[in-house]
Amino acid sequence: AQSVTQLGSHVSVSEGALVLLRCNYSSSVPPYLFWYVQYPNQGLQLLLKYTTGATLVKGINGFEAEFKKSETSFHLTKPSAHMSDAAEYFCAVSRGGSQGNLIFGKGTKLSVKP
Amino acid sequence: DGGITQSPKYLFRKEGQNVTLSCEQNLNHDAMYWYRQDPGQGLRLIYYSQIVNDFQKGDIAEGYSVSREKKESFPLTVTSAQKNPTAFYLCASSGGIGTEAFFGQGTRLTVV
To answer: A–B: how many Cβ contacts below 8 A?
Structure first.
């Protein structure tokens, strides 16, 4: 069965510091992988996705993620945190070929200190 | 503007009452989804529909029902059989193969 594990339910960084949010997945088929961001009482916004091709994926707001098949990982990074990055982040893997039928991790809440 | 509209944003109901959450999209997407979000639990799939007049159960369908009579609409009914209905409910839609899911702004349901 497919699953997603996000390491760390809360991550705190200083403004300007590197952001690293960890995601590991299990899938018996080549996965489609996603990172979504959620601000309080809002819906989810897609940050980036990996389907096929280049394993380093660039997304919005300066975020990027690298698909590492050997490590079954899809960690999210941003070189320099901004106060506006404070939010909850979700990693997800698709079931089959559908990009809407998703299995989500439990989320990581990112705090950014001034 | 194209998007997904969920209404209402906040909903209060008494225990034992059925309640219907609205989800409308004008993105011309074939597939629509309902997810439930609980604190610290991520999102879990309740029901999904890939085409009008057809839908499938997701991981936590018990106590919920849906209909898909129109392409743009996918209402979710939370029935009295749902043992713990208080949660944040998110609707999403996606187009054909190769398109990601777009999410609505959610409905926060509180049952007292």
So the answer is: 67
